[in-house]
Amino acid sequence: MSRLWKRGRVLLRRMADGVEPPFDIAERAFEFALMVVEFVKGLPPGVAEYRIAYQLVKSGTSVGANVEEGYGAESVKDRIHKFGIARKEARESCYWCRLICEAAIGDAEAAAFLADEATQLARILSSLIQKDQRGL
Known about the structure:
The chain is an all-alpha fold. About 80% of the residues lie in helices and about 0% in strands. About 30% of the residues are buried.
């Protein structure tokens, strides 16, 4: 039960073999934010852990928020800008997850999974940005 609590339901479900992420980028980014929040709840207490957890939650939840803002943008240029911010936040999330792995302050397997998911989100957002830029 403690391993389930440390990883969280959504994170465990997604880490299971054969479970595909949502196709919709907004839903996938939301699920990523939820997984980040669940993961951070299982980090040990301490000053360094608190600071890293704070940064990961900020960047991890910002991805989805900026994707939502992008879909509500007033213009294509504004959407490109919001998706660009979301991409930067995904890359930052990957950094914090890698740091957690290397510093051995949390569940390394879950942190590596989240780092990979953040990288995939950044790549998807890059594709969406390129598609919009071609349409300008």
